[in-house]
Amino acid sequence: MKSLFSTFFIVLNIFALGQGISPADYVNPLMGTQSKPSLSNGNTYPAIGLPWGMNLWTPQTGKMGDGWAYTYDADKIKGFKQTHQPSPWMNDYGAFAIMPGVGKLKFKEEERASWFSHKAENAKPYSYSVYLADINVTTELTPTERAAFFKFDFPKTDSAYVVIDALNKGSYIKILPKERKILGYTTKYSRGKYNNFKNYFVIQFDKDFDLTTTWKDSVFVKNQLEITSDHAGAIVGFKLRNKESVYARTASSFISFEQAELNLKREIGGRNFEQVKTDAKNIWNKTLGRIEVKGGTDQQMRTFYSSLYRTLFFPQKLYEIDADNKVKHWSPYNGKILDGKMFAGTGFWDTFRALYPFLNLVYPSINVEMQEGLANSFKEGGFLPEWSSPGYSDIMIGNNSASVVADAYIKGLRGYDVETLWQAVKHGANNEGPIDAVGRRGVEYYNTLGYVPYDVKINENTARTLEYAYDDFAIYQLGKALGKPASEIDIYKKRASNYKNVFDPETGLMRGKNKDGKFQSPFNPFKWGDAFTEGNSWHYTWSVFQDIDGLSKLMGGKKKFEAKLDEVFALPPVFDDSYYGSVIHEIREMQIMNMGQYAHGNQPIQHMIYLYNYAGAPYKTQYWTRHVMDKLYYATPDGYCGDEDNGQTSAWYVFSALGFYPVTSATDQYVLGAPLFKEAVIHLENGKNIEIKAPANSADNLYVKSLNVNLRSYSKNWLSHKELMNGAVLEFQMDNKPNKERGSQEKDFPYSMSKE
Description:
By secondary structure, the protein is of the alpha+beta class.
């Protein structure tokens, strides 16, 4: 009953603060969709689903198998696709598509495609509708976690039909006319190798079929209502005496047809379309309404909630509830149907930085489930995934699952098998995996030399060294929190200082080092890739999350450290792309933003702005965070400055708009910036609130003159997670000129390992 009342008051406050506009209606799901392989403005698609739901839905403008499923500049829609795609670079798995038609039967995606206009398109988190001009049909869909409801508004015609496309790479379709039903499965996926992989689906129509036919590959199949093929599909038709709607309810399962039917019955059942849509909207408003903001421009409100929406999808639930109400999942790690929770669709290289810390603060209960899923992945596959899509994917570097596991426990999450996760992070830290991106590639070099050498044919070696060192810190922190003996954990504390081994005192930057201990030469700090990952030395030099004070000392002290930070913005946006052989989109995005070597469009440098707090110049953090929020984020199709990446780039914005950021996951601290809004309230799951007040906030008043925390003057450049979880009132006095004294003393600086 308490949760019902709290939900009621949250929704009541939402409408009061938003002048009648609910959080879900501030969201623009098209933010970031005006993208292409050569230039990302987000590389997103309109994801229509529920928070962390097993399935999402999106209109499909791209070709089957193309990761750019929906792009804003496209003219035609080819279908409405159930998707599990984390990003276009990862592509999709378990997808199938539905598309209405009128007149001559057309099932090939180019032939069935229809012109559309954004002027006749309405995208919300909880529904999507569009007018398909070539067939004079408006299609609308609304989701649940594992199901969706379609509404096709047909004209009066005797030749209305719906195409079901189970896609290629192995699919099955069966029409059951008496039951007005279609069954099917797809086995298509993009990365990894899986056993027993099928996405089973059921589609239930509300009208009798006047026409039924199947097709495979590029031809119709006569008199056969069941097809197994590389590429299978079906068409069912209707004779409509009047302009009317045809409804289709669909659900899927990674377990069985029976489970798909159960998911449909349980999640939609006898509810009508509007009821499902209303319930979906209410769920979004409740979830988004955990954070209320007030006192910004309309565009800032829309950008905030659109960014918040993007933090609430991945990883997706890969588990289902069986007929006995037991939690079950198909395992991407061994192909079996097993008990317990499982999630898929996230890359920790991106999301350990801010997305998972954000969940630990605002939505901890879902991350408890995710931690259970991680424990199961280790039990079933022998390693933690670093990129799950849906299982082990051989992309990116690092062993950042350690950070994700450690931060959750240190931030107080409980109720899962943390001892299994402790064994998992130690195993990952000391072993190479079955693929390069699992465990630690180059682990023997790292553990013996203290770095991964440049000249042993291990790519992105210096970036690996820096990330492994931070991950060792996270393991050490977790071990301390678990009460593990020094004999077990001190090795990780020692290795956490390995970042020093690749710091070049001559240039003051991180640099590749050969096996013989000499730095690689020649050295170009503007060279992307090579020793680094999707960045250059100017980006990766700051990846010492655990010991910024130690990095500062290597650079010659606070003033030189601050000057080095300044240099990032002062340098021209030059680059060396010779490692890649062409200008990759991340390079282009840095170049055109005109912020020097600051490349916010990719993850490695996103925390760097907050490092002024460790140099006694927090006012520079305040200036640059506001500059980035104002310049690089908009609730528009070109609204990001690079890949959004599973909620990470959005989580940076949400945290920064609230006024603080988790520079060092696996500690208790958030580093201060400055809030964007005059008021914000975070409704914590424990019933407490964090109130953030900055009544003088404005475009000019972007600097923090002073801060009171719980009515007491507060000079520190950081906030404690534990204290925030007890409820807090943060009162910022804002000004149009910087206060260069506040936060300038060493006693006010955030945590660094070497000062412990």
